[in-house]
Write a structure and sequence with these properties.
alpha/beta; Elongation Factor Tu (Ef-tu), domain 3; seven-stranded mixed β-barrel; 15 helices; 16% strand
Length: 391
């Protein structure tokens, strides 16, 4: 448009000003959309109250999961947590499950929790480690976006609670006999809970252990109060479990998840001593038959001479049963589960993080674990005899 044309068109100068203003507004809108409506480049949570989470040991930070995520935090992020008493946790993974290795801290948004929680996975109570009080607060800032996204993706696993989704009762119940080391055939079984029916599996486990002739149960997840609660609940349908419980053939241990704690070791010994003192076949179970059951079964497998490969093979059947994961069809997830979940259990049992698990004398480590936890040598020998089926 020439200067002459501008002068001949009515309101030309105002039109140019209007177009220019619109262009500026559109540019600002694009910038706003790219940087976020809040104008914040990184999410953060200001000073927020704390609650001591007592069952597993940890620190509830009183922000709901949905509200925390709405701030812009995402599973797989790395965060920094600073408590008002000066205690800090740097580069903490934020997950929706317990995906860190044993003894490592994390920030977790576990489904069903009221709030996000900072904890040490299978370790000491973070509340006590950090010397916190009810009047303390926490601040959370983003350290690195998506740093742990690969592990979050590999470990973010979900299963169905409908029998029709599974090929057999055994797979649905995560039920099987242990066939590793020198354990005799049909001596030790492992499974989901035969009494806690929160996942709809208890009646199936109950029928399977009856058919297998199980005579003694090592219950890793419950105490007597919980068991009575299951029995008194509407719809309880585990008559075989009930008969064993009433006969005194169930030992409830209520294990925590701290594999390295004195309490955990002591309760494991109580359970194995009970096996040594009672006739089998035996059932070892927790809620899902996965982690606490995985540790105890790994321990008795190692004690009876199982190789590392045998222990891995048995443990990973659980991940096939629940999630369909095998080394062949999802090798990356399979390898992460072995390295981040099972291997730390074995190293905790061995008390040595540097050993080569494939060549180590796992039987010797298992025996030392039990002796250090207070199990007498003659009781260990009696347990081995029971497990072999040569009693």
């Amino acid at each position: 448009m020439t200067n002459d044309m501008k002068t001949r068109i009515p309101g030309a100068k105002n039109l140019i000003r209007t177009v220019t203003a619109i262009g500026i507004i559109l540019s600002l809108l694009v910038v706003t959309l790219l940087t976020g409506c809040s104008g914040k480049s990184e999410p953060e949570l200001g000073e927020t109250g704390l609650i001591h989470e007592l069952e597993f040991g940890g620190v509830y930070i009183t922000m709901t999961i949905d509200d925390f995520n709405a701030l812009g935090f995402q599973y797989g992020d790395s965060v920094d947590v600073k408590f008002s008493n000066g205690y800090e946790l740097k580069d903490l993974p934020y997950y929706n499950g317990y995906y860190t290795q044993t003894g490592k801290p994390l920030l977790i948004a576990y489904p069903g929790y009221d709030y996000i929680k900072a904890a040490i996975n299978n370790g000491a109570d973070l509340w006590e480690v950090a010397n916190l009080k009810e009047t303390d607060t926490a601040q959370i800032t983003l350290a690195q976006k998506g740093k742990y996204a690969t592990i979050q993706d590999a470990r973010d696993l979900h299963y169905k609670d409908e029998r029709a989704k599974y090929p057999s009762d055994e797979v649905f119940a995560n039920f099987r006999t242990i066939e590793a080391g020198n354990i005799g055939s049909g001596i030790v079984y492992r499974s989901a809970s035969p009494c806690d029916n929160q996942h709809n599996r208890a009646p199936y486990v109950d029928a399977l252990i009856k058919n297998a002739g199980v005579k003694y149960i090592v219950n890793l997840s419950d105490n007597d109060d919980k068991i009575h609660g299951y029995i008194d609940a509407d719809g309880f349908d585990s008559p075989y479990f009930l008969s064993l419980y009433q006969a005194g053939s169930v030992i409830p241990l209520a294990l925590n998840m701290n594999f390295g704690s004195e309490e955990f070791r002591g309760k494991v010994v109580r359970g194995l001593e009970a096996m040594a003192d009672n006739d089998g076949p035996y059932l070892v179970h927790c809620t899902e038959g996965k982690d606490r059951t995985g540790f105890v079964c790994m321990l008795i497998e190692a004690l009876t001479g199982a190789t590392y490969e045998e222990i891995v093979a048995d443990y990973m059947i659980t991940y096939y049963n629940y999630y369909g994961i095998t080394e062949q069809n999802e090798k990356a997830k399979y390898d992460i589960i072995v390295s981040d979940v099972l291997d730390p259990m074995i190293r905790s049992m061995a008390g040595d993080d540097s050993i080569d698990l494939r060549t180590a004398d796992l039987a010797a480590y298992a025996e030392r674990f039990l002796k250090n936890a207070g199990m007498a040598a003659e009781k260990i020998d009696a347990l081995k005899t029971r497990l072999s089926g040569n009693q």
